[in-house]
Amino acid sequence: MPSPLETQKWAGAVDNVGSKVLARVLSEMKYGGCVAACGLAGGSDLPATVMPFILRGVSLRGVDSVWCPTPRRIAAWERLVTDISDEALANINKTIPLEDVPRYAKEILAGNITGHIVIDVNA
């Protein structure tokens, strides 16, 4: 488990793992930062303290992908098209061939990968 307050690294984050990963992200948030939690792949527990919330003013927001009304979903997808430049998307997205998954898995587990990786099973 991370310390209640780690070195401040992130102004904002999206966590789709939960549990220990979410606890670490919360402990590394910069003052006034916000985390959007949208998944529980690592578990539904949250082994963390309230220190990031009280001492750094960190916010934790839940992302409802199940009951969110259609008009709100459409508006969100439209904003992604207008609010994020192609250059920014290129910097956070990476496509790799299936054969590179073991190498990238080690990098992900070591905390050396940021962004979004798509695995091209046809490459």
Automatic annotation (TrEMBL):
What protein name does the entry list?
Acrylyl-CoA reductase (NADPH)
Please tell me the species this chain comes from.
Answer: Desulfobacula phenolica
